[in-house]
Amino acid sequence: MYKTHKPIEATVAQGWILMFLIFVCITIVEFLNATVSGNLSIYTSDEGAAALRVMVMLMLLHAFVPMLVVTFDVRWFRWSIAVLTLLFGLLMIGHEVMHIFVAKSRDFGVFDLLDFSHHALALWVAILAVRWARAQ
Known about the structure:
This protein has about 140 residues and is mainly alpha-helical. It has helices at about 10-35, 45-70, 75-100, 110-135. The longest helix has 29 residues, at about 10-35.
């Protein structure tokens, strides 16, 4: 019944786990959308293959950061996670802007809600990571 206080690093780790889950959902939904529309050719180009490699690297980042956050508690490490989270969130937002406004490779739709949820969560976790870095 009573809310117990969790250490802020647990919340940062949980935020990275939630970003990972949303990222996996985005990957599955985009693949299913391409499959249903019969447009799997986007994965056969050099750019598509490179994008898949980048996605695997991002998934590994999503998977390992939460464990690192709850394992290490050194000031420089906390700040590096805060900077990484902020840069990661801004990179994802920039990527989305490129898709929507510059490349115009797709129309805005319901699938973009997953992307925007990921971006909002990344900024929220970045704020928490900065608070964690300032602690102690």
